[in-house]
Amino acid sequence: MPTRSNSQAARPSRTAAARGTNRTAIWALVLSVLGITSPIGLYLGYRARNQIARTREFGEPFARVAIWIGWLYVVVIVLALITFFWISGQSS
Questions:
Q1: What pTM was estimated for this model as a whole?
Q2: Predicted pLDDT of residue 5
Q3: Using CB atoms within 10 A of its CB, is residue 5 exposed (0-12), middle (13-18) or buried (19+)?
């Protein structure tokens, strides 16, 4: 029975080495963290998840965090606007 040497077993395959990090996922995370550009980060996060599923690149956690942070900012902005209009309506 042939045995494999440790050097052959430790080497990664060419396809694993060729995979890089999805740049769209990184941009989605950066734009979501900035806050005012969170809707763009949300869009890019969903787009990056689709690309990663298709191409098997790295970066799925970046896209997932970008989506969570983007939705968090959107919720905060909507609640802030509701509070602002509610307070401004009380003074009339």
A1: 0.74
A2: 54
A3: exposed
The three-class DSSP label of residue 69 is helix
The answer to whether 32 and 66 are in contact (CB under 8 A) is yes
Has residue 59 got a pLDDT over 60? yes
| DSSP-assigned states of every residue in 54-67 | HH--B-HHHHHHHH
Residues 6+ apart with CB under 8 A from 19: 56, 57, 58
Contact 37, 70 (CB under 8 A): no
Angle value at C-alpha 31, between 19 and 17, nearest 5 degrees: 5
